[in-house]
Design brief:
The structure holds two protein chains of two kinds. By secondary structure, chain A is of the alpha/beta class. Helices cover 28% and strands 24% of the residues of chain A. Chain A has a single domain, classed as 3-Layer(aba) Sandwich (Rossmann fold), CATH 3.40.50.410. In chain A, strands 1, 4, 5, 6, 9, 12, 13 and 14 form an eight-stranded mixed beta sheet that branches. Chain A has a two-stranded antiparallel sheet with strand order 2-3. The longest helix of chain A has 20 residues. Chain A is globular and about 55 Å long. Chain B is of the alpha+beta class. Chain B has one domain: 4-Layer Sandwich (Phosphatase 2c, domain 1), CATH 3.60.40.10. Chain B has seven helices and eleven strands. The two termini of chain B are 18 Å apart. Chains A and B meet through helix 1, strand 2, strand 7 and strand 8 of A and helix 3 of B.
Chain lengths: 288, 249
């Protein structure tokens, strides 16, 4: 059965984020204007969300002796230019742009203090200050060179697969708020998804961030669930892989109804559906 | 009073691909006096210091009554000692270890107690399991009596008080009677699921009762190879209660 490879240090998997950094990412989420001037930009929400998620991935791999390399991780930003936002160190560069998670863990750009609500053990919550790692900052400038980003991602996963031919295949998660300004992304997406390990083809998931107040369309199984007049939604739907078994289970646990045709795609995502989807999309299977 | 006429052995195999040092189950036996007490625990892989917590639990439960009430009371003490033991590590730990220490360790636990008068009782939190055998017939499998696809979210005992689940249903208890010649097998969840499925072909716990360390290792390897056994730490504790003829020899 595909997408069932055990994830271990001998056989890690890879998670690669493609983050839209175009100028429109300066705007808040659709509908957020009503919540006041302080509504953060989509770029800020996205950077915070992915930094949080990287933190959670590190924590899933952290044991008393250190961080186990169950994942190799990359982040590619696309806007003013297409660039890797996480760089391997000189002494350890596997050449794929994907960094073993222990290296990520030990090299945050900085630690930031945050106030966090925690369970007080008495049925209530209390506020506590925690330091959280930050690996990259929000950016928002120029166009949306998504095709170039997908192309760079394809180079990364192709090289990574050469080194890990039996692994659970790489998971690529593309988060964008607009249309590609450098060509037809479907062709690049198909190329990216054509690379495969013994365990299955590369998974490409897409999250489209909300510019409107419409409700999100989460994990659609057919393009009929999308807004009927939106060609772009349909392109992103076609670009997106079907969810493998383990992620369908994770989605069901989150309360979604799923089918064999459910795609890893959220259209018009608000911050909550963004977080939920990223959690589901980075649960390939149990770590061993 | 003579020592109880029991023999026990603890068989363990770490998950494939992991070092023995990464094994995170634990087992303990107190065979020298009545009541005889045995226990197994399974440290949760995603927590830190899971093995040390599992060892704390089996050492603790084999020194007290195997009841939910006694366990609830003792757990508070173990949690307090755990917090004290790790307090100075938190200062120097990297950021991720600090977070994991704050979350604490988690483990499932099953403790069994046998009295000289022929009664036994057990307490469990989570999906470790117990098999009671008489003449190679399964008298009882507990808390699960039938194979089911593993819940990945069993009830767990946390090392930190503020992580306590508030469900009293998490604490399970059972009682029964034993006779000389009976045997009890205690196992962690992957082995429980495997033996329950094998029982349907009549080669489960009764066969396991005869295993020594080599036989267990071979059986685990074979079952993993054809996907009958999930790749997880495997622990089997076998407790034999000798028949009178054995005791005389």
């Amino acid at each position: 059965m595909p997408y069932s490879a055990e994830i271990s240090r001998r056989q890690p998997t890879a998670v690669l984020f493609l983050l839209d950094q175009s100028a429109s990412m300066q705007e808040p989420f659709g509908g957020a204007e009503q919540t006041g001037d302080a509504a953060p930009s989509r770029a800020r929400v996205l950077a915070d969300t992915v930094n949080d998620l990287l933190q959670n991935l590190v924590l899933r791999c952290a044991k008393e002796e250190g961080v186990r390399d169950y994942f190799h991780v990359g982040v590619i930003g696309y806007g003013e230019r297409v660039q890797r936002l996480i760089q391997p160190t000189d002494e350890y560069d596997p050449g794929t742009g994907l960094v073993p998670i222990s290296h990520l863990a030990d090299r945050p750009q900085r630690m930031e203090q945050r106030v966090k609500e925690v369970d007080d053990g008495e049925g209530g919550t209390t506020e506590t200050r925690v330091k959280v790692p930050i690996w990259f900052n929000p950016q928002a400038k120029n166009g949306t060179p998504m095709c170039q980003a997908l192309d760079l991602a394809a180079q990364s996963v192709r090289d990574w697969i050469d080194q890990h031919p039996h692994s659970f295949p790489p998971i690529v998660i593309n988060v964008t708020d607009g249309e590609a300004t450098d060509g037809d992304p479907l062709r690049y997406a198909q190329e990216l998804r054509s690379f495969a390990t013994d365990d299955g083809e590369v998974l490409l998931f897409n999250v489209h961030l909300s510019e409107s107040e419409e409700a999100p369309v989460e994990l659609p199984s057919s393009s009929a669930e999308l807004p009927s007049d939106d060609e772009y939604a349909d392109v992103l739907f076609q670009m997106s892989s079907r969810l493998p078994f383990s992620m369908r289970s994770a989605a069901e646990q989150e309360g979604y109804s799923v089918t064999l045709d459910t795609r890893g795609f959220v259209f018009n995502a608000d911050p909550v559906s963004l977080v939920t989807f990223l959690e589901i999309g980075t649960r390939p299977s149990n770590l061993r | 009073m003579p020592s109880p006429p029991v023999d026990s052995r603890i068989l363990s195999v770490p998950k494939a691909g992991a070092d023995a040092s990464e094994y995170e189950d634990a087992a303990a036996v107190r065979p020298d006096d009545w009541p005889v007490r045995v226990a197994v625990a399974d440290g949760a892989t995603e927590s830190i210091f899971a093995r040390a917590w599992a060892e704390t639990l089996v050492e603790g439960i084999t020194a007290m009554a195997a009841t939910p009430e006694a366990l609830t009371t003792a757990l508070s003490d173990w949690q307090a000692r755990w917090a004290a033991a790790l307090a100075d590590r938190t200062e120097v730990a990297p950021w991720y270890a600090k977070v994991k220490l704050r979350e604490g360790a988690f483990a499932t636990l099953l403790g069994l107690e046998l009295n000289a008068d022929g009664r036994w009782r057990a307490v469990a939190v989570g999906d470790c399991g117990l098999f009671h055998l008489r003449d190679d017939t399964l008298q009882r499998a507990w808390p699960s009596a039938a194979p089911k696809e593993g819940t990945n979210r069993p009830a767990l005992l946390p090392s930190r008080r503020d992580q306590m689940s508030r469900s009293p249903d998490d604490y399970r208890a059972v009682t029964g009677h034993w006779q000389p010649g009976d045997a009890f097998l205690l196992a962690t969840d992957a082995v429980v699921a495997w033996l329950l499925r094998a029982e349907e072909q009549r080669e489960g716990p009764a066969a396991a009762r005869t295993w020594d360390a080599d036989a267990f290792r071979e059986a685990v390897a074979a079952a993993r190879a054809d996907d009958r056994l999930r790749n997880d730490d495997c622990t089997l504790l076998v407790l034999e209660l000798h028949a009178p003829t054995d005791a005389e020899t």
